[in-house]
Amino acid sequence: MANTADAIIDRRRLRRKLTFWRVLAFAILAVAMFGLYFFNTGSDGLSSKSAPHIAKVRVEGTIFENDELLKRLKDVEDSDAVKGVILSVDSPGGTTAGGEAIYEAVRKLAMKKPVVSQVGTLAASAGYMIASASDHIVARQSSIIGSIGVLFQYPDISQLLGKLGVKVETIKSSPLKAEPNFFNPASEEAKAMIHRMIIDSYDWFVGLVQERRKFTHEQALALADGSVFTGRQAVANKLIDELGGEEKALGWLKTKGVDDKLPVLEWKPVEKSSLGMFFSHSAVKMLAKYLGIPEESAGILRELTGDRMFLDGLVSVWHVDGKPVGAQ
């Protein structure tokens, strides 16, 4: 009995020790995560953002309507601590509506604070539209600039469906309802409808470039044929103002009365949402399932189509080899 009692006491002591070490380990982990959070977000903390500084906002990747970015630009606009803004642009473009929304937000911001765009590798299509919303554009000599224009793309999988023995029957209220679609070749009437829509948006885009870059209408049209330019060519064509990097952007801000000794703080997104990417992946899987393609092959379908099939509405994006550059 004595041995049994001693064993019970030892087990209780062991459990107490294990509990103590578990609690301690949990506390250390919590402190480490807390410290890591503040280490990673220290430059974006409230205390640093409350002191005078130059804000940097990145516009990167394929352009969509981005509520988080729009809110961030509004917060920068409303912050008394922000004395100037560097808009870091590296984008092939994206949806026309998404570019329009961000363009308008940057224009509102530029009404209150000096804003300069610093182009990295690429500012094309809707990416260039957004860059032009600032009052000064700086780009590298080898940056890619331009691709002013609008397009509308849709796949025609009718021949593929025929080979698979699938026929899609459609009953609709009028001939142009839901045209064009994936399942039938587009009619000439449908193509004409889309063309009218594209030309209307194109005229609007050309008007923006004409206004922002102080071109005549003829000058804007001459540069709006979809061509892309190096930074060197773009400065010669007055699509941008200066060659260089962040130091040139700071130099321009200084001419607007902004102290170039102020710290440059990047206003980062609070949380990067993968919701859009999730829906894009889901759409690919649904199409693969509809076509009878194994779900594991959905990745191959994505490689063949890129994201362009799933960009909603009119698109202003630069393509190379049939795929959007920088698509995620």
Structural class: alpha/beta
Report the sheet with the most strands, covering strand number, pairing sense and barrel closure: 8 strands, mixed
Distance separating the two termini: 69 Å
- The sequence of SSEs as H and E is HHEHEEHEHEEHHHEHEHEHHEEE
Please give the count of helices.
12
Q: Which CATH first-tier class of the largest domain would you pick?
A: Alpha Beta
Q: Using DSSP, what is the number of strands?
A: 12
What's the CATH architecture name of the largest domain? Answer: Alpha-Beta Complex
CATH topology term of the largest domain: 2-enoyl-CoA Hydratase, Chain A, domain 1
Mean pLDDT: 81
* Stretches with pLDDT under 50, minimum 5 residues: 36-46, 273-280, 300-310, 320-328
Helix content class: 40-55%
**Strand content range:** 15-25%
Question: What would your notes on this structure say?
Answer:
The chain is α/β, with parallel strands linked by helices. It folds into two domains: 2-42; 45-156 and 177-324, Alpha-Beta Complex (2-enoyl-CoA Hydratase, Chain A, domain 1), CATH 3.90.226. Helix content is 48%, strand content 16%. The protein has twelve helices and twelve strands. Strands 1, 2, 4, 5, 6, 7, 8 and 9 form an eight-stranded mixed beta sheet that branches. A two-stranded antiparallel sheet has the order 3-10. Strand 11 and strand 12 form a beta hairpin. The longest helix has 40 residues, at 2-41.
